Amino acid sequence: MQLAILGIIVVVVVVFIALTIKIVPQQRVGVVERLGKFNRLLTPGLNILIPVIDQVRTYHDLRIQQANVPPQTVITKDNVQVQIDTIIFYQVVGPEEATYGISDYVYGVRNISTATMRQIIGKLELDETLSGREKISSDIRLALDEATEKWGVRIERVEVIDIKPPLDIQEAMDKQMKAERSKRAIVLEAEAAKQDMILRAEGDKQSKILKAEGDKEARIRQAEGMRQAQELEALGQAKAIQAVAEAEKSRIQLISSAGLDERVLAYQSFDALTEISKGAANKVFLPSSAVETLGTLGAIAEVFKASKESK
């Protein structure tokens, strides 16, 4: 009997401790109600409750979570039915609002996402729908943000996973895509051939220009070299003439300074006649001026004779 009572006491103590002590893991939070009214939030770690009076209404996961929206069939502006799969990433940022603002915020997010998607796709044609995933995702996210703000839920991201048009439309699109690719390939080949011809023509043009410029430069340098050579040759001749003139001038000045102008000339004339007489001709005709010169020779002899006597 005593053991039974002791066992009951132990069970009561264990239940009391279980109802009193609450350990909340990281990134989770609990909503506590006291006598059916919101009291406080249980934060990560050890928390103490008053048994029976305090109750944990629910726990919320504060990590980013994802909710898959079932595939939805919507009609585009040009009356084409397409099936769209989306996924929504959300996070609970207000545990109290998420508990009391809506009964099931995940269900609410899915419904708002579906309704918004129908409105958006109804304004777009099929081609715009297929190429406008980013815009569709952005518009759905904006619509969800406005609705979920008072639910304590923040929409992190909305992704349109897949857009499936009807089978016949897919086949037509495949044919169109193949035709477009064939057309693009032909255009690219023609463009490549055009670029090849242009580049070859440009290369040939540049080659001819460079060759002409090279020939021009060579001719210019050749003419410049000839001009400089002629200038140097003329300069050399001028200097030579100048040197001869200078030498002649010096010789005349020396002769003039020696006072032997006429006599030296007469002597040189005599030497010249002597050299002429040594030539192949047997006769030498002397002009009248030469006679005067020979007459002068006598004077020269007298001069040399007087010079020897004076010595």
UniProtKB/TrEMBL annotation:
<dbReference type="InterPro" id="IPR050710">
    <property type="entry name" value="Band7/mec-2_domain"/>
</dbReference>
<protein>
    <submittedName>
        <fullName>SPFH/Band 7/PHB domain protein</fullName>
    </submittedName>
</protein>
<feature type="transmembrane region" description="Helical">
    <location>
        <begin position="6"/>
        <end position="24"/>
    </location>
</feature>
<feature type="domain" description="Band 7">
    <location>
        <begin position="19"/>
        <end position="177"/>
    </location>
</feature>
<dbReference type="InterPro" id="IPR001107">
    <property type="entry name" value="Band_7"/>
</dbReference>
<dbReference type="InterPro" id="IPR001972">
    <property type="entry name" value="Stomatin_HflK_fam"/>
</dbReference>
<keyword id="KW-0812">Transmembrane</keyword>
<dbReference type="InterPro" id="IPR036013">
    <property type="entry name" value="Band_7/SPFH_dom_sf"/>
</dbReference>
<keyword id="KW-1133">Transmembrane helix</keyword>
<dbReference type="Pfam" id="PF01145">
    <property type="entry name" value="Band_7"/>
</dbReference>
<keyword id="KW-0472">Membrane</keyword>
